[in-house]
Amino acid sequence: MTSPKSVDDRLKDAVGPKGFSQDPAEIAPHLEEWRGKYKGHTRLLLKPATTAEVSAALRICQETGTRLVTQGGNTGLVGGQIPLGGEVLLSTHRLNRIRHLDESGMTLAVEAGVTLAAVQQRAADHGLLFPLSLASEGSATLGGNIATNAGGTHVLRYGMTRALVLGLEVVLASGVVLEMMRALPKDNSGYDLKQLFIGSEGTLGVITAATLRLFPRPDAVVTALAAVPSPAAALKLLGALQAHTGGMLSAFELMPRLAMELITRHVEGTRDPLSAPSPWYVLIEASGGRDSNLAASLESGLADVVAGGLVSDAVVASSAAQAAGLWKLRENISEAQKREGASIKHDISVPVAAIPDFLAKATPAVLALLPGARPVSFGHLGDGNLHFNFNSPAAGDDPSFLAQWDEVQQVVHDMVKEFGGSISAEHGIGAMKVASLPRYKSHEELDAMRAIKHAFDPKNILNPGKTVPPVLRL
Ligand SMILES: Cc1cc2nc3c(=O)[nH]c(=O)nc-3n(C[C@H](O)[C@H](O)[C@H](O)COP(=O)(O)OP(=O)(O)OC[C@H]3O[C@@H](n4cnc5c(N)ncnc54)[C@H](O)[C@@H]3O)c2cc1C
């Protein structure tokens, strides 16, 4: 009599010989996330190449109670993609086909493991735009973007990922495939189920494909950097330029002087384009059609505010290379912070108008706990989203600085709540914030989340322990 196959052997059969690995060298890069904050372990890496293989694997997991973590590009910043409890790890990188581009309908059907950069490029090849834009776009995948409801630099104009997804294909914990790839801007035929999976961080199902909304590619894109004395001035500038350009801004990114110093110190090929240092800067992008005369409009808008004293200096890029140089400053802040040393980070949002008051109150509160720490708060001002970050004191002791992360985080998050904000603007909850979520979300909301989790994943096999806090039994 032959003995029954082990679960792992059944999973390997489900995905075929090219669809798994147990080679430690191949698995290693999947086990640690970008910041080095979370390190996991797994006995088996699955690499399915089709939706049918994902479905077959999940059927076995559900039947045997085998826990599984889904991973895309491994750029997530809250540890959601790391198998912290030794779960089987499912990488989507072989689900990498672009299925269909509809030029006149402006939609694109792609599989989950395609990188964001590849999606942007495919849209551009057809003269179209996929506007989601993140500094991690070379590695981050569409599946990961959707599972985290990623934000990035163009939310001001185009919304979060949620607004860019028309259809989804999802494999449930049971192995059942929900085929919802409809390319319909309008579809009110019952619950909009796809929205439940967008931002669900791998806890409700494995996203295998999506139908995305594309946009006309703007012919005129104007990029500028403005020096402002304060976040309050930056906020006024946002209102003034939106009014002046008739709402044509597509990015409005705040950064402090220290960010400029760290970037020019650590990132090759960068320089401060303005003649005098300024306490704060805003990177501005406006985009529109060929005949929109946008450059002139943005330049005259900036000239008005310079004359009015709201902006001390500004530069408008006169070539694509100059625009790329300005974006390089913004996109390398996280990298420059990392090269400078340890930092404690928060991805928070408050109502847009509250940003200056939040910074004025929360920054000294953190400095009281972390004397000598160096604030590098930057982000998507137009969305009320700050990366409220602090680098260790210049001569600091990194491990003891980082040991204060939880204490500092609670002070910051309590203040975010006071301002009516969110403790996660765009990165998600993952492993990092799951324990503190009950402090900031009502029992009723948490119970509704648990009910949804139970309905889709009754055995709690998908990304267990992440995003959805367990009920505390006292
Ligand atoms: C330098 C840098 C800059 C960044 N900038 C931004 C930014 O501006 N805005 C922003 O929002 N984020 C940003 N991020 C965070 C990160 O890039 C995003 O969260 C991204 O969407 C994650 O995609 P990924 O493919 O790497 O997902 P992963 O890191 O692999 O996974 C993230 C989460 O999604 C789940 N998941 C992944 N794929 C699937 C799938 N197919 N089905 C179900 N669940 C899945 C995982 O289980 C995990 O919970 C940045 C990260 C870095 C390193």
From the helix content, strand content and strand pairing, which structural class follows?
alpha+beta
Q: Judging from the principal axes of the Cα atoms, what is the shape?
A: globular
Arrangement of strands in the largest sheet:
5-6-10-8-9
Biggest pleated sheet: 5 strands, antiparallel
- Low-confidence runs (pLDDT<50, min 5 residues)? none
Please tally the helical runs, counting DSSP H or I stretches of 4 or more residues.
17
Our measurement of the CA-to-CA distance between the termini, rounded to an integer number of angstroms, reads: 50 Å
Each distinct ligand: flavin-adenine dinucleotide
Strand content: 15-25%
Give a count of the beta strands, DSSP E runs of length 2 or more. Answer: 21
- Helix share, percent: 25-40%
Mean pLDDT: 95
How many whole angstroms does the radius of gyration measure? 23 Å
What's a concise summary of this model?
The protein is an alpha+beta fold and 474 residues long.
